[in-house]
Write a structure and sequence with these properties.
Layout lengths: L4 H16 L4 E6 L1 E7 L6 H5 L4 E3 L4 E2 L5 E9 L8 E7 L12 E5 L5 E5 L5 E5 L7 E9 L25 E2 L2 E7 L1 H19 L5 H16 L5 H17 L8 E6 L11 H21 L5 E3 L2 H10 L1 H13 L2 E3 L14 H19 L5 E3 L10 H7 L4 E3 L15 E5 L5 E5 L12 H10 L8 E6 L10 H10 L7 E4 L2 H12 L5 E3 L15 H27 L7 H13 L12 H28 L5 E4 L6 E8 L2 E7 L4 E3 H4 L8 E5 L2 E5 L3 E5 L5 E6 L4 E2 L7 E6 L19 E2 L5 E7 L3 E10 L2 E10 L5 E9 L4 E9 L5 E6 L2 E6 L5 H5 L3 E2 L3 E6 L2 E7 L4 E9 L2 E12 L11 E11 L3 H12 L3 E4 L7 E3 L4 E8 L7 E7 L5 E7 L3 E7 L5 E4 L2 E2 L2 E6 L4 E8 L1
Parallel strand pairs: 13-20, 13-21, 14-15, 16-17, 17-19, 18-22
Antiparallel strand pairs: 1-12, 2-3, 2-5, 4-11, 5-10, 6-9, 6-12, 7-8, 7-10, 18-19, 23-26, 23-47, 24-25, 27-28, 28-29, 29-30, 30-31, 32-33, 32-38, 34-35, 35-36, 36-37, 37-46, 38-45, 39-40, 39-42, 41-44, 42-43, 43-46, 44-45, 48-51, 49-50, 50-56, 51-55, 52-53, 52-56, 54-55
Helix pairs in contact: 1-4, 3-4, 3-5, 3-12, 4-5, 6-7, 6-8, 7-8, 9-15, 14-15, 14-16, 15-16
């Protein structure tokens, strides 16, 4: 046979493009349009129904950026369309961009009941099937003029309503009544499924040629000038090749409808409320037509929004859950970042999410579902296990720049040894459309073939929402069992996980430790104010809960602020979404985030102050919210300093807490150098404001291998993702900021000595106070920056005279070790790493920690200094990318980092908590610790009242040093009953008690939650 494949394929492509697809809608007639342009922010449909509308013509411009226009669509179904499937088809000006990144809308009926959303790949609204003729059509389209922001990462003012301008950005193309020719529509789907399958088969496969010849026969049977009249015959020519079943050994795909909706990203939070509504309306409508649909949907926050703003859609969701066409998944409040949220915050993500799904929908979710977050903490397996979560899903590590993960289905082991059954969909997307290339890739890419036979494919338009379409459902029907293709079965993710674990669980490999994403490393730093707001809000919530619990236990009349704390927690959890906290959203999102954090912190300060007042009468006192005793210098009021000792989780009168200075803190100036000393450290600051020596007097050794607190400015030009990426090549150029405008001694003891260093560079200015307090082993660097740079990254370097082969970085409920060398590609890829409150490097017998109150990005390298190998730790302080926010981080910033010489792991834990939980001076009585733990390795994470409002006290604690710990927990209030609970505060068993209190035996990094009933 002559090889005419290319000719046949070319003939097919033109026929499909020019004749067959355009014939899907056999007849059209335009609808009459009128419009009301809503002023300001979006309004409820009731307001739009009462508005005054004016005539509107297709072809007219509409929609300044971020505005909303409401269009009335009116018409009558022609009598001659009787018996046909009639739809409204709208195009308000869709561009070539995908759904969710441009104009979109929600269509309501005449009474204001939502029908479904419209986007570029889902433009129809059902009218009648079959039509009687004469039906009136009266619809209301809420059209959102959302601009496309991300164009090759070019800076744009479109990312904030304050800067986007007023010029209309869309031109309304059409709004028609149309007859859908179902036979032609199905023919298009037959052709697409077979063509895409054929293209994935090797040229020497008989199946490829059989499909090609069947498609050729189809074209011969089709009259291109009468597609409608010959479509049935054309479909008949394809019936036999479509009916051939898949091979018995074909890869099995479990498919779940999906619509990954970013809770904010290239749109503000308020727009996500509407995106969720549009998508959820689409899905519930689709399920009525395709009862086999299963839609997997995460993020309890988005459900809550829809419940509040769209009660009709909410009722449809509840019905879909009951019918089995909707599967709540994910177990979390939002799909959060999985590196930076604190330990308690990550626990609350899970507890708030699971509680919502259980209480509102009667569903107990069994998986963590984070397809798009930028790496995953090794604390997750234990948190999942404690919450009763069995499975974990992501696909993001398919984005790794350097190293391919060796497994797709495996057991993921956390830092404590807990394991969770994990799956990475080998289709490498969470927005599949059932294209042949996607399914073929899933089968070829699946790393566990031979032992495992199945994988998961989430399908539907996502990121900006949209969800599955009827075309995807039709594709799935054809792909259920089709020779040459994987088998496709639409089912709940839980069904997939259960089957995969049963098939492969006993043999599945184990991955131990964090799931580090070899990409998007700059998300540890970008939008520093957002990260600072998160860190401070987390610790303010911790403090508020502690003192509110103390007040509730001490004073029966005190009303614990359950609702307020719940609302504030949910606000903080929302802002941990994986495009907000990482700093990768538009300017509008981060402007609002900064304002939100200010409100959260102000309200929490009021809540805490009220709780402290309820503790009872007393004089000036110092309150310590840290689980470790503190010996510190505090501001006692009116600028006066006092050195105090305060017990863990307790309060002492300011006069009682004070104690002698010891040797105090002393400053000496010699020429151009300033020497700061106390009983533990001797610190030399040179004329350039650099630390030329930090001597540990207790250990009798120098800490620095070269000048420390060296600020280094690098050019920062990522190859692709501006806000997201810190590419390795940035390290090849830098400027050391060694010029100082001034270096002056500003405090000279006896409680504090401090040197202020002022530097100007570029258009920026930085002021740092290097502080050493009496009795402290911690050297603080209090930093104020007026940051005006463009595409630069600022680092603070500490070359340490420590020979460390690995670093230890705090994560949630523990720490992870990472190599300081680049022996392998896996090691080299971790050139930027995330740490919470501390990072420590050590050699045998000696360690040094860097503490921070707002910084997450770090790098650790090894370098020779004076012929000896040392370890340089750098904190990544600020960046200045231009997309998607062209003004990222420009402005003023205030943060503190600190050097802690001679630090053990326990010192780092306590020091990090102290820096992030400042002592509070207030009028209060002496207060014994509400709870105390008799082992320094056991760290109390939170103290609160139980979420069920029973008045029980919840204490969450963990082993923080990586070893075993036997401890006794004592309380300052009588306890009638003590239980160990799961993460959701449900009892597991009674706690072991003795005369001294509760007996605890913890494994390395083990988390324990206790429920204590006051007597």
């Amino acid at each position: 046979m002559h090889d005419d494949r290319l000719l046949v394929e070319g003939r097919l492509e033109r026929a499909l493009r020019q004749f067959i697809r355009p014939a899907q809608y056999a007849h059209t007639t335009p609808l009459a349009l009128s419009v009301w342009h809503a002023p300001g922010e979006p309004v409820p449909v009731a307001t739009a129904l009462d508005a005054d509308y004016e005539p509107f013509e297709t072809g007219t411009e509409w929609g300044k950026p971020w505005s909303t226009s409401w269009f009335r669509l009116r018409g009558v179904v022609p009598d001659k369309w009787r018996g046909r499937r009639v739809e409204v088809v709208v195009d308000p000006g869709f561009s070539g961009d995908g759904p969710g990144f441009q104009a979109e809308g929600l269509v309501y009926d005449a009474a204001g009941v939502p029908i479904k959303g419209v986007h570029p790949r889902n433009r129809h609204i059902p009218v009648a099937s079959p039509a009687e003729g004469g039906e009136p059509v009266h619809l209301l389209l809420e059209a959102a003029a959302n601009p496309a922001v991300l164009h090759d990462f070019v800076p744009t003012p479109l990312g904030d309503v304050l800067t986007a301008g007023n010029r209309p950005i869309y031109r309304f193309a059409s709004a028609d009544l149309a007859v859908l020719d179902e036979e032609v529509w199905r023919l298009v789907l037959d052709i697409e499924v077979l063509t895409e399958l054929m293209e994935q088969l090797e040229p020497d496969r008989p199946r490829r040629h059989e499909i090609l010849r069947a498609l050729e026969d189809m074209l011969d049977a089709l009259d291109l000038h009468d597609v409608s009249g010959t479509a049935a015959a054309a479909r008949a020519a394809l019936a036999e090749v479509l009916a051939r079943p898949a091979h018995a050994s074909a890869h099995r795909v479990s498919a779940a409808g999906h619509a990954h909706i970013d809770s904010a990203w290239l749109w503000p939070l308020r727009e996500t409320v509407r995106k969720a509504s549009r998508t959820f309306a689409n899905v519930t409508a689709l399920a009525e037509e395709y009862p086999e649909l299963v839609f997997a949907c995460s993020q309890a926050q988005q459900y809550a929004w829809v419940k509040e703003h769209q009660p009709h859609i909410w009722e449809r969701i509840k019905k879909a859950v009951a019918d089995g066409t909707w599967a709540p998944v994910g177990s979390m409040w939002v799909e959060s970042d999985a590196n930076m949220p604190g330990g308690e915050a990550l626990a609350r993500q899970i507890t708030h999410g699971m509680r919502f799904f259980r209480e509102e929908l009667g569903v107990r979710t069994e998986e963590i579902w984070l397809p798009d977050s930028f790496g995953y903490t090794a604390a997750f397996p234990q948190l999942a296990k404690l919450a009763g979560v069995r499975w974990f899903l992501t696909q993001k590590l398919s984005w790794n720049q350097s190293n391919k993960m060796p497994h797709h289905t495996f057991w993921w082991e956390g830092i404590d040894g807990s394991r969770v059954f994990t799956h990475f969909p080998p289709v490498d997307t969470y927005n599949s459309q059932f294209h042949g290339a996607e399914l073929a890739h899933a089968e070829r890419n699946f790393a566990d073939k031979g032992r495992a036979t199945r994988s998961l494919v989430p399908f539907g338009w996502g990121d900006g929402g949209g969800g599955p379409t009827r075309e995807m459902m039709e594709r799935a029907r054809r792909l259920r069992s089709l020779e040459g293709s994987p088998r496709v079965e639409i089912e709940k993710p839980s069904a997939f996980f259960a089957a995969a674990e049963e098939e492969y669980g006993a043999r599945a490999p184990v991955w131990s430790g964090e799931l580090y994403l070899e990409l998007h490393r700059a998300t540890y730093t970008t939008q520093a104010a957002t990260k600072r707001g998160n860190r401070r809000s987390e610790h303010a919530l911790r403090e508020a809960e502690l003192w509110c619990t103390a007040a509730a236990v001490r004073d029966p009349a005190y009303v614990y602020p359950y609702d307020t704390l719940d609302r504030l927690w949910k606000t903080v959890l929302l802002h941990q979404f994986h495009d907000i906290l990482p700093g990768s959203s538009i300017a509008w999102v981060h402007r609002e985030a900064r304002e939100t954090y200010e409100r959260v912190l102000a309200e929490l300060d009021e809540v805490t102050a009220a709780a402290v007042r309820s503790l009872g009468a007393g004089g000036p006192a110092v309150l310590n919210a840290s689980p470790y005793a503190r010996d510190e210098v505090v501001d006692a009021g009116d600028g006066a300093l006092a050195r105090v000792f305060v017990p863990a989780l307790g309060a002492r009168g300011l006069d009682d807490a004070g104690h002698g200075l010891g040797s105090g803190a002393v400053a000496h100036t010699t020429g151009e150098t300033i020497l700061l000393t106390n009983e533990h450290l001797s610190v030399t600051v040179d004329a350039a404001g650099l630390l030329t020596s930090v001597r540990d007097l207790d250990a009798g050794r120098e800490v620095l291998a070269a000048p420390g607190n060296l600020l280094q400015l690098h050019p920062d030009h990522p190859t692709h993702y501006d806000a997201w990426d810190l590419d390795e090549h940035y390290r090849r150029r830098h400027t050391d900021l060694t010029e100082a405008e001034s270096v002056e001694l500003v405090e000279d003891g006896p409680l504090r000595v401090a040197v202020r260093v002022v530097r100007a560079f570029g258009a920026s200015r930085i002021t740092q106070e290097i502080r050493l307090d009496a009795g402290s082993r911690r050297l603080d660097v209090v930093t104020d920056v007026d940051w005006r740079e463009s595409e630069k990254v600022l680092k603070a370097a500490f070359p340490l005279d420590v020979h460390a082969e690995r670093s230890a970085a705090e994560i949630q409920f523990g720490h992870v070790h990472r190599p300081t060398h680049a022996n392998t590609g896996w090691d080299a890829a971790q050139y930027e790493i995330c740490a919470h409150r501390w990072l420590r490097v050590a050699e045998e017998g000696y360690g040094v920690a860097l503490l921070n109150d707002a910084t997450y990005g770090h790098d650790v390298t090894r370098a020779e200094h004076g012929g000896a190998l040392g370890t340089t730790v750098r904190l990544t302080l600020l960046r200045a990318p231009h997309s998607p926010d062209p003004e990222t981080d420009r402005g003023t910033h205030r943060f503190t980092y600190a050097l802690l010489p001679g630090a053990t792991t326990g010192d780092a834990v306590a020091g990090g908590l102290a820096l992030n939980l400042p002592l509070r001076v207030a009028q209060a009585p002496v207060l014994a610790p509400l709870v105390s733990v008799g082992h320094p390795a056991v760290t109390v994470e939170s103290v609160k009242l139980a979420d069920d409002r029973s008045g029980d006290v919840i204490v969450r604690l963990y082993e923080s040093r990586g070893g075993r710990a036997a401890a006794t927990l004592a309380t300052s209030f009588p306890v009638a009953r003590a239980e160990v609970t799961d993460l959701l505060e449900q009892p597991l068993h009674e706690a072991e008690t003795g005369e001294a209190g509760l007996s605890l035996a913890l494994r390395p990094f083990q988390i324990v939650t206790l429920r204590l009933r006051p007597a």
